Amino acid sequence: MSEIVTFGETMLRLSPPDQRRLEETRELEVRAAGAESNVAVAAQRLGSAPATWTSKLPDSPLGRRVVGELEGYGIDADVVWSDEGRQGTYYLEHGGKPRGTNVIYDRSDAAVTTAETGELDTGLIEDAELFFTTGITPALSDRLRETTAELLETAAESGTKTAFDFNYRGKLWSPDEAADCLRGLFPSIDVLVVAARDARNVLGLEGEAAELGTELADEFGFETVIITRGAEGALAWNDGEIVEQPSYETETLDPIGTGDAFTGAFLARRLEGEDVATALEYAAATAALKRTIPGDIALVTREEVESVVAEDDAEISR
C-alpha cells in the first residue's frame, strides 16, 4: 500500500542545453515533468513509505518514456493506457536577465484530459494515508474538473487525508474560472497550499500571509493552510496557530519544480509524524536544494535536507 497517492498530468520537458534558443538549438534534453509526479518523488525520497502517481497516458513510446523515468526514481506509476490522445510536452528555454525563462506548452488533446474516475484504481486512494492533486489538473479539461472533484470526494469519504496545491496557471484559465472551480473543491480538502499572490489575485482575499491563512481556514474548514511567499519563505496556519518559515539561501540553477519539492517534503514529514514547524523546515530546505538541480524533480536525499537545516540552525545559534 502506498502512503501517498497523487493524480495529474506528467509531460515531457524539452530543453535546449547551455541556455540556447529554441530556434537555433540542434538538440533537446528530455525529462519527465509534472507537478503531481514531482510531489510523489519528493515525498517518497523524504518519507519511509512508497508513493504512487496515477494518471492516463498514450500507449506509445513517449508515454512509456514517462513511466520508465518516474519508476526509475522509485515511485509506483499506476497508469491507464490509451489508444487515443497524445503525450503532453512543454519546451523550456532558460535564460538569465533580462531575457528570462520562457515556457511553451504543447499539451492539447493529451490522453490525460479524458481520464474518468471509473478508469482509475480508486482503491489505491481509499487505502492511502493521503491523496494529493493540484489546481493544474482541473484546468486541463471539463472532464478533468469532474474527475478531480470525484477523486477528492472519494478520498474524503474513505477517510484518506487530502492535500491540494492551488497552483494557478494563467496560461490555462482565467482567475474567475479558477476561483469558481477550485472553491467548489475546497470542502473535500484537508491541507491547502496556495501562493499569497494567488490568494489575493485569484481568490480576491486581502491582507498579510497570516490573515490569508486564517481567513481561508475559517471559511472552508481546512486542517492546515500553507501560504507560500517566494523568497520571503512560507507560513502555515494549523489548528489555530501560525508557524513561519524563512527561505534558505540558495544558488538558482533551475527554479522549475521548487514548489512541488516544498510540498512533497512537507507532506512526507507530516505523514512521518513531525510537527508543522519541523515539516516546514524540511520543505524549505528541500526547495532550496531543488533550485540547484536541473529538471523539474527534486533528486535529493534526507541527509542533504537535514544538513541544510542543521547548518542554518548552527548559523542562528552563533
TrEMBL record:
* Annotated ranges, domain Carbohydrate kinase PfkB: 1-298
Q: Where are the transmembrane segments?
A: none
Q: Which InterPro entries match?
A: Carb_kinase_PfkB-like, KDG_KDGal_kin_Halo, PfkB_dom, Ribokinase-like
- At the top of the EC hierarchy, this enzyme's class is transferase
Q: What is its EC number?
A: 2.7.1.45
- Which UniProt keywords are listed? Kinase, Transferase
Name a GO molecular-function annotation.
2-dehydro-3-deoxygluconokinase activity
Family, according to the entry, reads as follows: Belongs to the carbohydrate kinase PfkB family.
How is this protein named in the record?
Answer: Sugar kinase, ribokinase
Q: Which organism is it from?
A: Natronococcus occultus SP4
Q: What is the lineage of its organism?
A: Archaea, Methanobacteriati, Methanobacteriota, Stenosarchaea group, Halobacteria
